[in-house]
Amino acid sequence: MKLTTSPILLISSLGLCAGIVSGVHLNTARSPNAQPKRKTSMLIDPPALPDLPTITAAKAAASAFDLNLTDIQGDILIGMKKKKELFFFFSISNATDFKAKLKSTILPLVTNTAQLLDVAQQPQTALNIGFSQRGLLALNITDELNDSAFSGGQLQDISSLGDPGTTNWVPEFVAGHIHGVILLASDTVDNINSTLSGLQSKLGTSITEIYSLQGAARPGSEEGHEHFGYLDGISNPAVEGFQSPLPGQAVVPTGEILVGENGDAGIDNRPSWAKDGSFLVFRQLQQLVPEFNKFLTDNPIRAPALTPKQGSELLGARMIGRWKSGAPVFLAPLVDNPALGADPTRNNDFTYGAPGQTTGKANATDQSKCPFSAHIRKTRPRADLGLPESSSSNHHIVRGGIPYGPEVTGNEATSNTTNIERGLAFGSNTNLSLFKHRMLMLHDLVCYQSSIAAGFQFLQQKWADNTKFIHAGVGFDPIIGAAQGAQRAVTGLDLTNPSRSITLTTDFVVSRGGEYFFSPSLSAIANTLSV
Length: 531
Ligand SMILES: *[C@@H]1O[C@H](CO)[C@@H](O)[C@H](O)[C@H]1NC(C)=O
Ligand SMILES: *[C@@H]1O[C@H](CO)[C@@H](O)[C@H](O)[C@H]1NC(C)=O
Ligand SMILES: *[C@@H]1O[C@H](CO)[C@@H](O)[C@H](O)[C@H]1NC(C)=O
Ligand SMILES: *[C@@H]1O[C@H](CO)[C@@H](O)[C@H](O)[C@H]1NC(C)=O
Ligand SMILES: *[C@@H]1O[C@H](CO)[C@@H](O)[C@H](O)[C@H]1NC(C)=O
Ligand SMILES: *[C@@H]1O[C@H](CO)[C@@H](O)[C@H](O)[C@H]1NC(C)=O
Ligand SMILES: *[C@@H]1O[C@H](CO)[C@@H](O)[C@H](O)[C@H]1NC(C)=O
Ligand SMILES: *[C@@H]1O[C@H](CO)[C@@H](O)[C@H](O)[C@H]1NC(C)=O
Fold this sequence. Notes:
By secondary structure, the chain is α+β, with helices and mostly antiparallel strands. The protein has a domain at 19-160 and 169-286 and 515-529. The protein has 17 helices and 13 strands. The protein has helices at 55-64, 74-78, 95-106, 113-117, 133-138, 148-152, 171-175, 189-203, 254-257, 289-298, 308-320, 338-341, 375-379, 410-415, 432-437, 453-464, 522-529; strands at residues 84-92, 126-131, 180-186, 207-216, 238-239, 251-252, 278-287, 398-399, 403-404, 442-449, 488-491, 501-504, 509-519. Strands 7, 8, 9, 10 and 13 form a five-stranded antiparallel sheet that branches. The protein is globular and about 70 Å long. The model is unreliable at 1-32 and 420-443 (pLDDT under 50). Residues 363, 365-366, 368 line the site of one 2-acetamido-2-deoxy-beta-D-glucopyranose.
């Protein structure tokens, strides 16, 4: 989903690069696996998005919750703050050999949470790793993690997630050979490439590459925005034991994201080594940007005092629930308010309730300021489920995705069609080598949770795809809602006639499939997975 998410939208970011020493020095540093240290952060920090905690603040928060930040892989709590990120999917060819190298070669490179928060401790390229159920079995790990979605694999969920069969899936996600994924993040693709080639030469024939995907934050002023143009990542929750919330930010118990911590509903049924790991959902989502833009152009909201262009912008903002600046339509109902969008203390500070309302539910018939179907409202209903919010929802995820693919070309924009040059309507092609050469606007969804059923699956199935949520007649989430390829009806978009149903004949976000992984703690890698 790209949007799927808990907010959902996807996102990205920006990083500084200065005085970067390339990974060529990988093998010449002091200890065999040490990478040269950084002077500037590899992470991005768009001012409109919640800041990461300082290392001092995070350590204090962690200590109050007895959380070991050096044992938790860095990507889980950090979210979408990557400049460049490579997803490298592999199968294990020789388990004995791989286990030895997992300990000697990979583990020393696994970047933990404390390291990422402290620039002086950041490597040139951060590395995280996750394993599919097949991968754990290949390593002879037969303990049941007790997450049935994970054990079944994502392909098994294809219908229930609303995907129209495997037609659009990347063939490698269908074939069933993926044992794990290595995530490499840095501020340059050069760093990532040299880390990967160093790694591959050491891992030798113990693994086989299945598929890889390079992501990057969008350029210039679009940094932090997903491919449709909307600022993304504002609604990621604050996790207890890690960071303090900004006004309006959801606070989630540690165990909603980390297995075996307080708030993990499955805590009594996990093997002890799974503690402080998290389930990683990977989805590759294509965004049909020119098609989306044409839909907005062709269907402006005709409110008094709005030009057609403003009416089109309003339609897009009501589909998302935010303007491109990040300003929520609930607080800026008719035109964008860039100052509001840029202020992280205000851009998430609303509930859909009346001013000052602290208990009870939002008005069940008022869509004047924000449609019930809006993407961010469907995936985080706030007062629609009743206030205070924390008592009404345990369906949170931490989103860690990044955009993929080049900017829309002039030709695509003019033709209103993604990649018209090849004449391929996305959706009919399963030839990977063609995909690799097409100009795709891709976005992935990466998210973490302690239960795939309560996290990703719930948000997609019970909220985004449920036409009766939050009220009868609401229809689909117009962005990520999926109906196995069928047309989707949505209400509430036209504020002059909220009951008007608009039929979307195109899925602007197309699922290319993915897989479920478990991202173990560093101690689990050391003491269980590599022995
Ligand atoms: C925290 O985790 C690290 C990495 O696994 C480990 O070396 C360290 O002993 C742990 N600290 C505590 C207090 O358990
Ligand atoms: C996995 O278990 C099988 C059966 O006990 C054994 O033959 C094999 O060597 C084990 N593989 C590894 C990598 O430990
Ligand atoms: C697997 O790796 C081990 C350790 O490197 C090696 O001894 C063994 O011959 C390899 N097995 C196969 C089938 O290549
Ligand atoms: C990184 O590696 C990929 C795959 O080998 C290659 O296509 C790309 O050009 C490389 N990029 C850089 C900046 O070296
Ligand atoms: C998994 O959890 C359920 C309850 O949520 C429990 O009934 C079942 O026994 C557990 N399975 C294992 C292998 O622990
Ligand atoms: C709820 O919203 C509707 C539609 O805007 C309005 O007519 C009604 O008065 C509102 N109810 C309350 C209690 O504010
Ligand atoms: C693209 O869509 C716009 C808006 O509907 C339309 O005016 C234009 O003619 C379309 N271009 C082509 C080549 O179809
Ligand atoms: C996939 O597309 C490539 C590039 O056009 C082509 O060379 C190859 O034959 C195609 N493979 C199949 C199975 O159609």
